[in-house]
Amino acid sequence: MENATPALFFAGIDIGSTMSKAVVVDAQGAMRGYVVGPTGAEHRRRANKVMEDVLLKVGITLDQVAYIISTGYGRVNVPFADKQVTELTCHARGVASLFPDVRTAIDIGGQDAKVLKIKSGRLTDFLTNDKCAAGTGRFLEVAAETLGLELNEMGQISLQSDTPVKINSLCTIFAQQEIISRLSEGQPLTDILAGVYIAVTTRVVKLARQLKVEPPVVFTGGVAKNSGMVKAMETVLGMPVLVPEEPLITGALGAAILARDEAFKLVQDGHYKIQKKQLSEAYIEFTEKKL
Amino acid sequence: MSETATPSKTEKKRAINRLKSMYPLRNVVQQDYIDTLKASNEGKPTVWSMLNYWEGDLPLKAMGLNIVYPENYATLLAASGAAEPFLDASDSDGFPTHMCGYGRSTIGYSYRMMKENGGKIPPDAPLGGMAKPALLLGSGIICDARFKWFQSLARYFDAPEWCLEMPMMATYEGSEPDLEAYQVKFLVKELKDFIAFLEKLFKQKMDWAKLEELTDLAVKIHETTYKISELRQSIPGPMHATDFWSSMPPSLFFAGDMKVSLKCYQDMLAEVQERVNNKVSGINYPERYRLIFAELPPWHSLKFFDSLAEMGWNFVFESFGYHAPKPPDLSKYSDPCEKLARLSRNFMFNVFPEAKADNIQNPIVETYLKIARGFKADGFFMHPLISCRAASCSLRTVQHWEQEKLDVPSLWVEGDIIDKRVFNPQEVLARAEAFEQTMDHYRKVRKSRGLDW
Q: What is the ipTM metric for this complex?
């Protein structure tokens, strides 16, 4: 297949429980663009949409994308993906590409939380919460609904608190009742919000401590966009955390980089399935630059 | 890379390469339930017995009593997908959902039998069900929840419950040589009291010659299963964990005719030996990773292991608590009770000397370290149970020391033995995929440390 544009691209698509993300990287692994959008019930439609949007954003066509890896909760519903890779592997790779020295990554998404131990860019251990939404973004959504606030305004409000209230309930629903009780007791909103963040963080840090938290710690996932959560995380961990410029896309970024690696491996192994000419050229260009 | 068995063209390729010799052993247990039910219909008493590490099973069998094993029956409920109505019945009767899955399912069984079905076996009970017990034999071994569970069962049936005890020390001081005589004396007294109780309850005398004969058979069965376990260290692993779980009740409970069981285990030993000689794997895919399963399996989802086998995960060993250790030499003892006492005691105390040598306080940790070394494990599949402290509380310590001493990592998967509603196979498969990267990493680390796998 001939193409006017010599450069080739690689894409990663992360269909999460709440948000879908797509990232495109070039042959050097540099990010050329990304998009983020809500997942909704139609995973396949969403996958198509984020892919179309990211291609538009980068200004390329699907033909120029040599290899696509899907990841996340809905990764099986990306019909155009060449391969599916678990989100744990993709997150580790994505985080390490942004912070090469990272040793611990904490990711809090809409319905799950995960802690990754990383060494030399490789996933060496991990734990996930798989039984309960208490340490996830869902907990924050419930709190926001209860307090009649938008998620994105909660963080700033909580930063005004010096004395967070204690939220004891381990269950998200019971915690909602506890928030209402604290409100009726007349506790300030700022302290209740700060207490909510401490509660979520404590649950996740408990998971992280099972793996021994080592710095540098990178905090990712949609919840890391919240300044109140970042402060709570640093308070509970007792150490600073690094947050990527866009903490939602580390999984998709990792998937895109893995897509590039996988494509190059195909070239190396002599499997010229996709756009062999351009892929070979990109690979040669890449290895020459590396040398 | 391992050789794998080749299925015929018409046969769908099965991920796990089942041992042919496993099926007769599974049948021994199934037939035992059917025979016991038939005997009950003829007016003979049924005893419900929990795992007691042979202390109680052999006296019962020597007196010709028919036994069923609620823990094993609970696994059948789970494996046949029939557990939920029984779990729900337990919940309805006010028992907590975080209680032992074996307890919940058989309490539910008893509740439905006695409170909802007028004393008749629930119609959806697999293998015809368990007949109403004339005696419940509990045990103080392993955990308190177990004997409280049998007390609860006894109340449904208004049946007597006897609880056998065993000295059980958490640290290796319990294995000091001068304590052995006291422990054996205690166990012999336990056995004699129990036998006296059985004679009074069932109005029949103990057949001491039979008890001795059965104890000798027990030793032979355990010698054989121990040899099988040793052979399983081969690469590729010749016997998958699911084959062990399917075939273990005749050695763990001595379910069924023990002479038949011994023959079946001898056949299994021969088949495993043949596989070792020919480098035949327990999975029909190349063995990419050698896994150890700790501790109690998800009985409701054993098919799940096929998906892992397709990924090249061979579960080469499993569940230390289900494995009889190498039996002691009992030939110098003449009292059948002392022979039996020493056989039972051996399970709890055999590993202490090695633990002491390895400077490990916890014998479970020592056992798993030995297993990881012997089996050249790439990783552990840890299955902590929300409903079982006894099988779960040591796992973190095991995980820590496996990592610390041997650089063998663990995949941590919470679940339950009976209740499949707390197990998410898709989620676990996703994590398993990522865990391969972790195992790859630690292979390199072990090599850099000079370990040979």
A: 0.70
